[in-house]
Amino acid sequence: MKKSLLALGVLGTVAGAAHAQSSVTLYGLIDAGLTYTNNQGGAHNFQATSGAVNGSRWGLRGAEDLGGGLKAIFTLENGFNITNGKLGQNSREFGRHAFVGLSSDRAGSVTLGRQYDSVVDYLGPLALTGTQYGGTQAAHPFDNDNLDNSFRVSNSVKYQSLNYGGFKFGGLYGFSNDAGDFATNRAYSVGASYNYGPLNVAAGYLQLNNSGATLNSSGAVSDDATFTAGRQRTFGAGISYAFGAAQAGFVFTQTRLDDATGIGASASGTTNGLVLTDGSARFTNYEVNGRYSLTPAWTLSGAYTFTDGRIDGVSPKWNQVSLQTAYALSKRTDVYLQGVYQHVSDTGDSGVTAAVNGLSASSSNSQVAATVGLRHRF
């Protein structure tokens, strides 16, 4: 009897140790709101919205200690619309994230799957869009630089370094998976960031070849591509500085398109899809942003973005202002009020109208949207 009890004790100890060496975490965020828009296709609208700031999602994140400072890691993250329960990211089950890999406390991590590009990873946190302080509706026109994660990169291999005294870097390559043409719908990117106390600086570069085209629908970026183009190059840099309860930042990005045929309607969340006939286009974005904590629970944030475009022989110019105030009811739940104003000029006969990201386009050159919402994290 004593031997049996001893054996059970040993098994329990081993099981406890094994459990301590591996973990799986369920997490998520739900963003639901009511949005008023002054002009959507020529009429004002009051609608229930999901993800006006942060896309609603749930996910599983896990790690297993393999010994010697090495871990197996994975993340599966699903995006959905809280207003109707539908899957996001063009009905993908894990459209936001789906990767597995190895992480070393000596060499960094290597992961494989569907992942964010390096511009999003390193430069994204310095912009207001893509964060809790501005999110979806604060994106630059058409989310042309993808800082709001309109698309992810499938078939990708990513490396991310350790933190070397505040300096981090990484890169990603997304395979075309095309046996006949290695470069048809592939992607690659690199990025780096440096943090020194209150100072943060970052830069990144992304290139897509034949994204959004029907040439290879199983490639790196296909049905969720913002643009249909033979080549897309996006690069940028940013800086932010925190002083006391405030933080201010500046972000510059530029996206260049070659052999472009269209701007997708579904990727940016708008219905402002356009056919491009000139073959080339360019978007240059200048964003100034800031945020301030009035109290530990109450924050204010805002951004102004000027975008200089070149589309089909015209040079549209966008001016956009976004403001948000959020109040935390607890560590996991907050309420927010957000407003966005966008105005576009010099559009010629291009068909470009104002279109706040995530909303149907205006019939005119201006659009105003205001959202009151609730966010819950788990």
SSE sequence, one letter per element: HEEEEEEHEEEEEEEEEEEE
CATH topology-level fold name: Porin
Order of strands, widest sheet: 1-3-4-5-6-7-8-9-10-11-12-14-15-16-17-18
Q: What's the CATH class label? A: Mainly Beta
Proper CATH architecture: Beta Barrel
State the low-pLDDT regions, or none.
Answer: 1-19, 265-271
Helical fraction: under 10%
Radius of gyration: 22 Å
Q: How many distinct folded domains?
A: 1
CATH superfamily label:
Porin
Q: How would you describe the shape?
A: globular
Largest sheet: 16 strands, antiparallel, barrel
Category from helices, strands and their pairing: mainly beta
InterPro entries: Gram-neg_bact_OMP, Gram_neg_porin_domain, Porin_dom_sf, Porin_Gram-ve, Porin_Neis
GO molecular function, one term: porin activity
Subcellular location: Cell outer membrane
Subunit structure: Homotrimer.
Short description:
By secondary structure, this protein is mostly beta strands. The protein has two helices and 18 strands.
How is the secondary structure organized here?
Elements: H1 2-21, E1 22-40, E2 43-50, E3 57-67, E4 70-79, E5 97-104, E6 108-115, H2 118-123, E7 153-160, E8 167-174, E9 186-196, E10 199-211, E11 227-243, E12 246-263, E13 274-275, E14 280-293, E15 298-311, E16 317-328, E17 333-345, E18 366-377
Antiparallel strand pairs: 1-2, 1-3, 1-18, 3-4, 4-5, 5-6, 6-7, 7-8, 8-9, 9-10, 10-11, 11-12, 12-13, 12-14, 14-15, 15-16, 16-17, 17-18
Pfam families: Porin_4
Membrane topology: Multi-pass membrane protein
Keywords: Cell outer membrane, Ion transport, Membrane, Porin, Signal, Transmembrane, Transmembrane beta strand, Transport
